[in-house]
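Lab meeting minutes (informal)
Scribe: AK
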Amino acid sequence: MRPFTTLTGIAAPLPMANVDTDKIIPARFLKTIERKGLGKSAFADLRYEEDGSEKPGFVLNQEPYRHAEVLIAHENFGCGSSREHAPWALLDFGIRCVIAPDFADIFFNNTFKNGILPIKLPRAVCDALMEDARMGANARISVDLERQVVIRPNGEEIPFEVDPLRKHRLLNGLDDIGETMQRAPVIGDFEAKQRAAQPWLYG
């Protein structure tokens, strides 16, 4: 998993509450177990007409937001079904950080496991960041995970909270498997001792 340390990029304003996982990646795209290639289908029903053409009014179809790495939304982002394809689609599109007043629990957990940083900030702060984002490419937002601050284009630093273990995992690019593999020597030593003491367990 790619480490998340600091990020400075274009932020896309999405002033919508209750953005569910079916909006993020509609169910008809869940036939794959591959993490790559879902970005083109992220927010498909909001991005495309029935004939496949783009809806010009949707923010991610507009410049510079086609290249957004931060998404700013309203309450209850990621509600609905528990599909892990939702963070896969966001990450494949290029989104590495989502800022909202709050998130659905399962989506919140899944983002960390896939290298996306979800940041909870008050609604008024999210609205201010959206106004910054509407300034376009000249107003980039920075996220410093080590220092736990979001930095506005005017230099104002907004602190945020993050679980220390999840912070450690993101900073070091560790998913559940990666963290387990860090303990491979200890696991190997245990298995060697167990194999010697209880060989019948190993066939």
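Next up, CB showed the second protein from the same session:
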Amino acid sequence: MSEYRYVAVDKKGKTVKGIISAPSKNEVHRILESKGLYPLEITEYKKPKIGINLNLGLSKVKDEELILFTSELATLISSGLTIVDALQGLYDQEENPYLRKIILDIKESIEAGNSISSAFKKFPDVFSSVYTSLLSVGEATGRLDKVLHGIYQYLERDLEIRRKITSAFAYPEFVVFVITGVVIFMLSVVLPRFTVMFVSAGANLPTPTRILLSISNFIRFKWFVLVAIVVIAYLIYRITYATPKGRLTIDYMKLKVPLFGRIAKFGSLSRFVRSLALISGNGYNILDGLLIASSVATNAYIIKEIEGVAHDIQSGQSFSEALSHRSFFPKVMVQMVTVGERSGLLDTSLERLSDLWDRSLDFTLKNLASRIEPALIVILGVIVGFIAVAMYLPMFTLPSLIGK
């Protein structure tokens, strides 16, 4: 008896999600229909194992490897090879042992009579719901090579955007790390040496110096308290983020962070819109496309807004109307969707919108360093300046002490 996670729609058009125990997917389908539910997606659910992961990421399939695998599979099928022969060829040349095992399992599953999409769905940690859903379309229409080529282009562009966002955040993270290191060094190494000299000379330490000395002593002798605070704060964050309400609140707050929240928002929306364009352009209706494409938006608040749009569509509204009733989505998205609905080229409009946001995101990321560098320099200057003043103030009392 296995457990399966399902997404279904009831007779009123409401989306229902849950987990059910059954011997097979067909049985899950039958149980849901007996309850008056229409299943949209059924995937095997594996309970997370409690313990320490010791594989150190060695068994993970990298994004580059997945993109290369998809591209080569599309090329081999386009050349006339069957899916089984193509997978055998990729298995023979693959160097990643984990990916080799996956390819072999998929090949054997297809040879056993399973569909291509179901064989890929056995590995949700490698192949996303967008990936497997499009495979089912390609399999049904006989356009598997073209669908795989579209998936390859989507994965390549998605990786490019994520890399740009990661590299843009790397600079401020590095500067904050340097500032923290400089402050700790000055407080734990430099300041105590100056303080010993002043105290031995009988100097009366001014207030800024005493404040800084208290901080220095705390860092030097009670550093474990700081470590404990950081660890406890991290654990509280992880525990809170593990709950649906906590994750929703934290992800909403992330979107409100000046500048960085905007980057996160439009980065996620761009990935979502591009996924939706790819899915709707391959035959999925907009409702199913929204539910599938929402998985690429890693922010829980954005997913909630997308599910709200899907619910409004189930209630009889058009896609553009459902978007217009939610202030979270930019007006340009409503306009592009409206044009796409009227022209019958919704996927084209969504793809153009994604391209527009990608170019805007590129410009923002390129100018990110120039926009935050002055603020970081000011912060560093204030911190180092205060430390320098606190260390040199006692020097003004030394001449009077020497005269005595």
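CB comment: The first strand starts at residue 2 and ends at 9.
No objections, moving on.
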